Amino acid sequence: MGSKCDGAPRNCEILRFLGEHHTRRCAEEKITGAKAVTNAMAVGLVIEVWRNGPVESMHASRRGPSDAAMFAESTALHEKAIEVLTAENVVYALFDFEEHLLDRTRPWAGTGGKTLRDLGYGFLGQYSKHVKERTNALASLIDHTCVQNPLEVYLVNKALMFGRAHKGMPRWPIIVERIGALLADPNHPAWYEDGHGARALAEMPQQTPPIDQLTATLLTSPFTLPDEVLEWLSCHLLFCAGPPYSPVWEESL
């Protein structure tokens, strides 16, 4: 790259450091090929602009989104993030994404139709400020010339730091495969405690599709599952199959 970059010097410093390790880290995590890179970038985009911010305080509050809703909305936003990153003009698309996130009338996935106005009471100002600041910061990275593909370098690193097992990452199919294995065997040693498997199966909502359909949906569009199924998955399966997971799985993830 050229020696002179017109971007903020501190951002150049960060990007150069991340860029030195980018190719190696992608190879280690099996993020290879344009589709895998875009998927990982989309995970990083959702984390950067939405997940790692005031939404976590909303999540911890009495009115905020549940664990299941956080999972569902993050996977729905991942789809939107892919649209952003594959748009002809990524900067314009980033600000469309900002508008989507700040829409106070849009129902969030997994919430039974609740909106940002319903879920974010007491945090709306902080949430709006965070989304706008992070969107502006990402838009400013695009023109950096200190590294190749600066947005890729930054967002993939963000995904690897905070979302290695998220939907869109190479490890997600492993998590889904484990969910299928757990549902097929209530006595599987990875159930978090004795009797948990039998209890989970007994509490399975009637709307739950057959295991093969359930796992197929988890791979592609978890946010389309009924809210009751999402809550059941969150309560019984996601933490047994993924981080923090049972030690039984540790050697294979």
Topology:
Layout: H1 9-28, H2 34-51, H3 54-60, H4 67-85, H5 90-102, H6 116-119, H7 124-141, H8 150-162, H9 172-184, H10 196-202, H11 211-220, H12 227-236, H13 238-241
Helix pairs in contact: 1-8, 2-4, 2-8, 4-5, 4-12, 5-7, 9-11
Question: Can you describe what's shown?
Answer:
The protein is mostly helical and 253 residues long. It has two domains: 9-162, no CATH class; 172-252, no CATH class. It has helices spanning 9-28, 34-51, 54-60, 67-85, 90-102, 116-119, 124-141, 150-162, 172-184, 196-202, 211-220, 227-236, 238-241. Helix 2 packs across helix 8, helix 5 (90-102) runs antiparallel to helix 7 (124-141) and helix 9 (172-184) runs antiparallel to helix 11. The chain is globular, with a radius of gyration of 19 Å.
Shape label? globular
**What structural category arises from helix and sheet content?**
mainly alpha
Mean pLDDT: 93
How far is the first residue's CA from the last residue's CA?
36 Å
DSSP helix fraction: 55-70%
Strand percent estimate = under 5%
Low-confidence stretches: none
Alpha carbon gyration radius: 19 Å
Number of discrete domains:
2
H/E element sequence: HHHHHHHHHHHHH
DSSP, total strands: 0
The biggest beta sheet is recorded as: none
Count of alpha and pi helical runs: 13
List keywords for this structure.
2 domains, single chain, mainly alpha, 253 residues
Summarize, please:
The protein has 253 residues and is mainly alpha-helical. It is 62% helix and 0% strand.
